[in-house]
Structure formats: structure tokens, C-alpha cells
Amino acid sequence: MFGFQHSTEKAKKLILEAPDNTKKAYLVLLVTLAMLLLQLFVSYMGMGSSWTCGLDNSDPAHPDICNYLRSVASCRLLTGPLKAQVTLDINNQAKASAEIVCPWENASSELRICFSVAAALSVVVGLSALSKESKKLSELHINSAYFFMFLLGLASTFDLFAVQQSEEDNYLLCNLSNELVPKEGVNGESMECNHYLYNFTAYFGYLIAGALLYSTYNMKVWKDNLSLDGL
Questions:
Q1: Rounded Cα–Cα distance for residues 37 and 117 (Å)
Q2: Which parts of the chain span the membrane according to its record (predicted)?
């Protein structure tokens, strides 16, 4: 408990009483760390797949409609990543809807999570360098941040390619309208797909890469001033 309070007081002192360049470097690192934690969360959200189906009433006359929807719209037939929703109008008496979530392919989420965790550790090293006024730790942060900036940017590029491929591969299914007709009296209304979460994940990776680059710049300025102060 005492150790935690001591660390908290030291952090407050670093923010409130430190020189301006130290404050700026510290705040940039904190923002970058928060962004990396958010990236970890959205990456985790994009890893799962799900398929749910429901009727807006409990009419037993259509027990097989969800099985039909699964046969025409599932991750076996769709190319991830995407989120899709298909609805059917049954004799104008009931509506069935299915929601399909297909994850990233080829373990891209797992790689992105590894890169984000490693980059977060690099940021922690930078925060430790500021706290301990360690030139050696600041150099370690700068060198590692460049490396993880490159990896995160590369991962985001491949993520965008994956989203584009998903849009192209699923174009026909994702633009269905009144075409799903499993039997008489059942009309296909629509199937809609979106890639909002996955596009956000990809573009946010570029933003984090930029934040890491900016953190290295501020750390260099801080290190240079530290060297001058030591003369």
C-alpha cells in the first residue's frame, strides 16, 4: 500500500513539478498507452464469431426458418471480417432475423494483439525512463517504439486488405434484396453487411503508429535536455 502511494505521489510530482518537456513527453506516453489498451479491446472484439437467429413471435408453423438462414448465411459461406444481418418476412405474419459475425482470418487479431502488448511495454519503459531520469531506458524506448510502430503500421495495412477482400468476396450476398425465398410465402427482405469495427481497428492502428512516432520525438527532446543538464 505504501509503495503504491509512493508511486502515485511520484507520478503527480512528475506531472505537476517537472519541466515542460518532461510533462509533454509524459502525457504523450500516457495517451499512447491508453490508445494501445483500446486497440487491444477492439482486437479482442474482432476475434469472436457468432450466429443468432430469432422470430418476432413464437409461431410453431415455421420451425425450420432459422436452419434455412444458417444454410444461406454463415461464416462458412462468408469471408470475414464482417457483421451481417439478414431478415425474412414470413407470410406477412412474422419476421425472422439472423445476425452473423465473422472474425478476422489467418490469426491477424492474435498478431495485432501481440504487437500492441509489446508496444505498450515499450511505452511503460518510456514512462519509467522519465520517472527515473534514465537516458538508457529512454534510448530503449525510442529504439523499440520505432520497431513496433513499423509492425503496427504493417498490420493495419494487411487489415485494410482483409476488409477490402471481404467486401469484394461478399458483395453478392451482402446486397441481396427480396432474393431469399426458401418456400412459398416466405419473402427475402434484405441482407446487410458492415465492416465498421474492422475498418476502425485498421485505421486506429495507423493512428497509434503515429502516436508512437510522436512519443519518440518527445523522448528525444527530453533526453537531449537531460544530457545538457548533466553538463
A1: 8
A2: 25-47, 113-130, 142-163, 196-217
Q: Which residue range is the domain that position 159 belongs to? A: 14-229
CA distance readout (Å), 55 to 22, 59, 112, 117: 59, 8, 37, 42
Task: Indicate whether 219 belongs to any domain.
Answer: yes
Residues 6+ apart with CB under 8 A from 204: 35, 38, 39, 42, 156
* 8 Å CB contact between 219 and 141: yes
Task: Confirm if 219 and 19 have CB atoms less than 8 A apart.
Answer: no
In a domain, 2, yes or no: no
Q: How many domains does the chain have?
A: 1
Secondary structure E strands in 50-103: 50-55, 82-90, 94-102
Residue 4: which pLDDT band, with cuts at 50, 70 and 90?
Answer: very low
Angle at 31 between CA 28 and CA 35, to 5 degrees: 135
Q: Is residue 214 in a domain?
A: yes
Amino acid identity, residue 54?
Answer: G
Q: Decide if pLDDT at 3 tops 80.
A: no
